[in-house]
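User: Hey, my collaborator sent me this sequence without any context and asked if I could get a structure. I don't really work with proteins. Can you help?
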Amino acid sequence: MANNHKSITEGYAVELFLDAEAEAKVLAFRDIIYRDGVQPVQGLMNDKPHISLAVFPRVDSQQLIALSEEYTKNLSRFKFRLGAAGTFPTSGNVLFLYPVPSLEMLKAHADFHHRLQLAGLQSSPYYFPGNWVPHLTLEFDIAREELCQSVGIFKENFEPIDGEFTQVGVVGFRPVEYLASFDLKKG
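Assistant: No problem. I've predicted the 3D structure and written it out in structure-token form, which is a compact way to encode the shape of the chain:
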């Protein structure tokens, strides 16, 4: 399902997408944060909840789409649990949900990066195996006070979210543009 439309983007990402029920739970929790005063940034960007396998400042998008499609041909759906919240020690004030690392997730990530290496494509070093902190961004560019408030909201309102990764998507971002998505094989 590749889209041949060319656009100007800040970068590209290859993302794992959640099943519909888990996605709805993530969005409902994000809405609680907004209702309690956090100003939306990511929530206004038409951004599907996801976990990025790799992010690229520049890359040949058609090559990345083809590589991602080939990668997903033998990748089966696998389960996840979003079990904690976190933030990175950066000025961007990112609030994210942290998935419990599973062997399936780590293997899927390492396999994808092996394919990138063979193709001569290099993602941001933050996403290299051994550096990668898998995360599902809830919001970013949060005011410091709102970030602290969000952690309190998390502690009072969050229940772990179990689900299944069902697709791999290739996305251009800022603005968010869905370039291609590929279904993972059912069990």
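In plain terms: The radius of gyration is 16 Å. You can pass these tokens on to your collaborator as they are.
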